[in-house]
Write a structure and sequence with these properties.
The complex is a heterodimer of chains A (275) and B (278).
Chain A (H helix, E strand, L loop, with lengths): L15 H29 L2 H9 L1 H34 L5 H13 L2 H12 L4 H6 L7 H25 L3 H9 L4 H29 L3 H6 L6 H12 L1 H25 L13
Chain B lengths: L1 E10 L2 E10 L4 E5 L6 H9 L6 E6 L2 E2 L10 E4 L11 H5 L1 H5 L4 H14 L15 H13 L5 E5 L7 H19 L9 E6 L2 H7 L2 E6 L2 E2 L5 H6 L4 H6 L5 E3 L2 E3 L2 E4 L2 E4 L9 E3 L3
Parallel strand pairs in B: 3-8, 3-9, 6-7, 7-8
Antiparallel strand pairs in B: 1-2, 1-4, 4-5, 9-10, 11-15, 12-13, 13-14
Classes of the chains: A mainly alpha (275), B alpha/beta (278).
Chain lengths: 275, 278
């Protein structure tokens, strides 16, 4: 008995452009959401406005306070937090999941509430406030602390992911070659994870610079640029606030692009011969 | 001598127990077993990366269990090599001497000497990222030997290589071990424990071979006896031998299989199975 030949497979339909068009349209919406407000602000600002903002001593001082406070918050948290990120990446201990969730808490806590919470630790009526005669309210140290609270998860997560990306065997090989845990951290883990750490530092710094809610509760003065923009918007209207906002955005974008270029992975080298 | 005494270990769902073994000084010892038989776990216990549930590991009579990996007198050649991608070939080889406190000049000299031994001195300034598989193997081997270990643990380093490269590296391992041993038995010679699933590799390299199968470590035998006189029917099956028969009755020099009584070299009253060679 002869067997029927199997039916031929239908040819693949060349409709993929419809799918790609749908992807592009959906993606454009997200890009527009990010780009439109920034572009609109830049277009609406005249060069004269910008130039006068760049010479405005109050604006410049607020920029200095913002950048420096966020910088110190990032540096201190990097020194203390990167070893913690390594431990979280490498050690499995009781309560690790709880600790990870706790360290992510600042991302979900409303930042004004974070500011209020911080006041209980560094405010005038806190233990620290009584000991120091005023606490950190109204100081750049207080501003740094508020910035650190809201932005440290970005650093910790990025650094932890960088350490997790190093094969465990590489660190184990270092141990069997005679390296102590300290040497493994400094000579192997840190150099292999530095790009992720730098990315985390950049994110933390940028997030610190942009913080308003927690900072304004800890310190209205000295004024950071986001607080200054808010104050000018309230007191003098949009036109007066915009120039300071544009200046802050330009500074941030320049820093961000610079640091991204610095932490970009190198192009892969040529492959060697087979032995 | 490396002594494993009654080791029991658990890693996830896998466990081994009652593992005992003596590896003689200067010996090239091969642990042969299928993938997933726990060979790598045993190496991890010896080098201190895994704590066993029970048992002891001793080297030259000294208990290693209380020593962290960095204080044990050994080096490991890992299956995935675990090279340091952020360092050059020279820095990789000099890593062990560096973390053990050797000065820059001394460790660079050691790295050059090790590279020369393995024929990779032209690669010293290169990053390891761009190297071929065979070159990476040599770098890993040079890095392990640069700490002048008394004991070298080797974890299937040849399995990922193509045929020709594998043959070269295998010869290299044999040559390096023979060089350390000199003309005759030498208590100072390099002792190697090499785990593999490759029978050919085991036969080529080993002074003695022990088979690890189904959670059981069988007594070590010389390579010549591995196929000729398999220690157990399960080992014979793992080695791919056919014609393994259960013995009904045995006496010195003969065995009875049903109606057949056959002469059998080495048989005694305790013989339980025989393999008939084609």
């Amino acid at each position: 008995m002869s067997q029927d030949a199997p039916a031929p497979l239908p040819a693949a339909r060349g409709r993929s452009w419809v799918f790609h068009l749908a992807l592009a349209l959906a993606g454009s919406l997200v890009v527009l959401l990010v780009v439109a407000p920034i572009l609109g602000m830049l277009v609406a600002s005249s060069f004269g406005e910008l130039s006068s903002a760049a010479r405005d001593r109050q604006v410049l001082e607020s920029l200095r306070v913002t950048l420096v406070s966020a910088f110190w918050a990032t540096i201190v948290c990097t020194l203390a937090g990167v070893p913690l990120a390594w431990l979280l990446a490498r050690r499995r201990f009781r309560g690790r999941s709880l600790l990870l969730a706790l360290l992510d808490l600042p991302i979900v806590v409303p930042h004004v509430a974070a500011g209020v919470a911080l006041l209980t630790v560094v405010g005038r009526h806190s233990l620290l406030g009584k000991l120091t005669g005023g606490g950190l309210v109204g100081t750049t140290a207080g501003i740094s602390m508020a910035m650190a609270f809201v932005s440290v998860p970005f650093l910790l997560n990025s650094a932890r992911q960088g350490f997790e990306a190093i094969p465990l065997r590489v660190e184990q090989a270092a141990r069997t070659l005679g390296a102590s845990p300290r040497q493994v951290f400094f000579i192997v883990a840190l150099p292999l994870a530095w790009r992720s750490i730098l990315t985390g530092m950049t994110l933390m710094w940028a997030r610190g610079i942009s913080e308003f809610g927690a900072v304004v509760i800890i310190a209205y003065h000295p004024m950071t640029t986001p607080v200054l923009v808010y104050q000018r918007l309230n007191d003098h209207g949009l036109g007066y606030a915009r120039a300071a906002a544009v200046l802050l955005v330009l500074v941030c974008v320049a820093l961000f692009v610079g640091l991204r270029l610095l932490s970009r992975p190198p192009r892969t080298g040529h492959r060697g011969r087979d032995a | 001598m490396l002594e494993l005494r009654d080791l029991g270990l658990t890693a996830g769902a896998f466990s081994l127990s009652g593992i005992s073994l003596d590896v003689r000084p200067g010996e090239y010892f091969v642990l042969l077993g299928p993938t997933g038989s726990g060979k790598t776990l045993l190496l991890e216990v010896i080098c201190g990366l895994l704590q066993p549930r029970t048992g002891q590991v001793r080297w030259q009579g000294r208990d290693l269990m209380c020593l962290p990996p960095e204080a044990r007198p050994l080096a490991v050649l890992f299956q995935d090599l675990a090279l340091f991608d952020h360092l050059t070939v020279g820095e990789n080889i000099a890593f062990g001497p560096r973390v053990r406190g050797l000065g820059r000049a001394a460790r660079d000299a050691r790295a050059r000497a090790m590279a020369a031994r393995l024929g990779i001195e032209t690669l010293l300034g290169r990053r390891v990222e761009g190297l071929s598989g065979g070159e990476r193997q040599r770098v890993a081997l040079a890095r392990a030997l640069a700490v002048e270990p008394a004991l070298l643990l080797v974890d299937e380093p040849l399995s990922a290589l193509d045929g020709v490269t594998r043959d070269h590296l295998r010869e290299e391992l044999k040559r390096l071990h023979a060089e350390s041993r000199g003309a005759g038995p030498d208590p100072e010679a390099l002792t190697v424990v090499h785990v593999t699933h490759d029978r050919e590799e085991a036969l080529y390299l080993a002074d003695r071979i022990s088979v690890l199968l189904g959670g059981r470590l069988f007594p070590p035998v010389p390579p010549a006896d591995l196929f000729r006189r398999p220690v157990d029917p399960a080992v014979a099956r793992f080695l791919g031998l056919r014609n393994v028969f259960a013995v009904d009755e045995a006496s010195p020099g003969t065995v009875r299989l049903g109606p057949l009584t056959l002469p059998c070299e080495g048989a005694d009253a305790s013989t339980r199975s025989v393999w008939i060679r084609p």
